[in-house]
Amino acid sequence: MKPVLIIRTGRAPAPIRARHGDFPHWFRLGAQLSPDRIRVVDVEAGEELPAPNQVAGALITGSAAMVTERAAWSERTAGWIRDAMDEELPMFGVCYGHQLMSHALGGRVDYLPGGREIGTVSLNVLDAARNDPLASALPLEFRAHATHEQSVLELPKGTTVLVSSARDPNHLVRYGKNAMSAQFHPEFNADVMRAYIHRKQHDMKREGFDPHHTFKQVAPTPLARRLFRQFSRHHGLATG
């Protein structure tokens, strides 16, 4: 059986890792992947990706890096994404992974106008989601965790936007029958979200945001997590 690839583009800050674990662990739990089915490749550390036809699917993590830096490892991964799209490989990118997928396929990524989006945010499901095999199960509004400074400002041609927020119009997009990406974090739980707000509180204050209010507004996001799990099940990646 081919492995499910977790493309690691970064790691959680050390204090968060020490208490809550790290991206591959959150992705495995969120997508309900068997531990013996996954293969983690740390592209930021220079590890080489297998050929797309050697894996069953790929999940692309977040990162503290910025897509606009055009780091060599990031651009190599973008090339791999293009090859994987040619193979129609099931792919789901999150945050940096979302931005990198759009960048790889011809979109434009840059800083989100108005500053960072962080906390448990309310998302709106668009009309285009009605015919989507996964997003059609979502209610008109649901909540998800987010923390990002950059965003997809212009989408690749042929992309369908499924979900937006008040701050970011491109929160969940579909690139084809097997490839999706989300600016929000379906793999986060509420404790992880609070840990990120605590870590970013000084930056938030400097930018005119109220971290105390944002912290208090954190809530569970079961529908965002369910979407991640359903993607995995839909493409035969999950354990059950």
UniProtKB/TrEMBL annotation:
<dbReference type="InterPro" id="IPR029062">
    <property type="entry name" value="Class_I_gatase-like"/>
</dbReference>
<dbReference type="InterPro" id="IPR044992">
    <property type="entry name" value="ChyE-like"/>
</dbReference>
<dbReference type="Pfam" id="PF00117">
    <property type="entry name" value="GATase"/>
</dbReference>
<dbReference type="InterPro" id="IPR017926">
    <property type="entry name" value="GATASE"/>
</dbReference>
<keyword id="KW-0315">Glutamine amidotransferase</keyword>
<feature type="domain" description="Glutamine amidotransferase">
    <location>
        <begin position="55"/>
        <end position="197"/>
    </location>
</feature>
<protein>
    <submittedName>
        <fullName>Glutamine amidotransferase</fullName>
    </submittedName>
</protein>
